[in-house]
Amino acid sequence: MTEGKGRALARLIDTLPPARREQVFTHTSWAPDRASSYERLEFLGDSVLELAIARALYDRFPEASEGRLAKIRAHVVSRQSCAAVAHELELGPVLVQRAQDIPGPELHRISLSRNVLAALLEAAIAAVYLEHGFEQAEEAVVDAFAERIEFASTGHVDAKTELQEALARTGRIVQYEVRAVEGPPHERRFVCAALIDGEEFGQGRGSTKKAAEQEAATQALEALELSRVDA
């Protein structure tokens, strides 16, 4: 785990009772039934995470409007953000260690799936909450997401930003191209494509280039997720 990032949450996860920890790191692929996998914990952890972040934003930004707070929270608790924190806490390797009778290539894909990593984190948060209560879980969660809170509160969070942030982790880049300009001068419609390493992953339309690029970025994020193994 990266030094200083989420150490409190990592410590609480590491010291969970064996039975609780076992459920956190049980994927549906080898669970005897879905209720024995991390899915039930994930359901609870999602709510614990949202409440912890919402409380932190409410306290830290007293002048922010409800709409602004909602946008910041949406970015902080997004699947991409949760997967990134799970990666920092090295939850994927722990899942791999506990796998049972899963072929290597399939297990590798599962461990890298954004949905799986995000689900693991939410399940772990729920387990910490059940063992230690909300106050202790809240403090550890807010600490683990501190950088993302800072980024979301000081930057313009949108689909293009999220796509760029996601690609940066693997050294890939995105470029946008105008593919067409439609309609009369007073009602222009732009068609833009999002190209990742030269390959088109999304296409969007809008009354401005910026709006079309945002839609293209949204489609690209969805296409990237479809290329991964879903939980």
Describe the 3D structure:
The protein is mainly alpha-helical and 231 residues long. It is 61% helix and 11% strand. The protein has a three-stranded antiparallel sheet. Helix 3 packs across helix 4, helix 3 packs across helix 8 and helix 6 packs antiparallel against helix 7. The longest helix has 22 residues. The protein is globular.
Secondary-structure map with pairings?
Blueprint: H1 7-14, H2 18-24, H3 39-60, H4 66-76, H5 79-88, H6 91-97, H7 104-112, H8 114-132, H9 134-144, H10 146-154, H11 159-168, E1 174-182, E2 189-196, E3 199-206, H12 209-226
Antiparallel strand pairs: 1-2, 2-3
Helix pairs in contact: 1-9, 2-8, 3-4, 3-8, 3-9, 4-10, 5-8, 6-7, 8-9, 11-12
Q: Main attributes?
A:
231 residues; three-stranded antiparallel beta sheet; single chain; mainly alpha; 61% helix
Concise overview:
This protein is mainly alpha-helical. It has helices at residues 7-14, 18-24, 39-60, 66-76, 79-88, 91-97, 104-112, 114-132, 134-144, 146-154, 159-168, 209-226, and strands at residues 174-182, 189-196, 199-206. The protein contains twelve helices and three strands, in the order H-H-H-H-H-H-H-H-H-H-H-E-E-E-H.
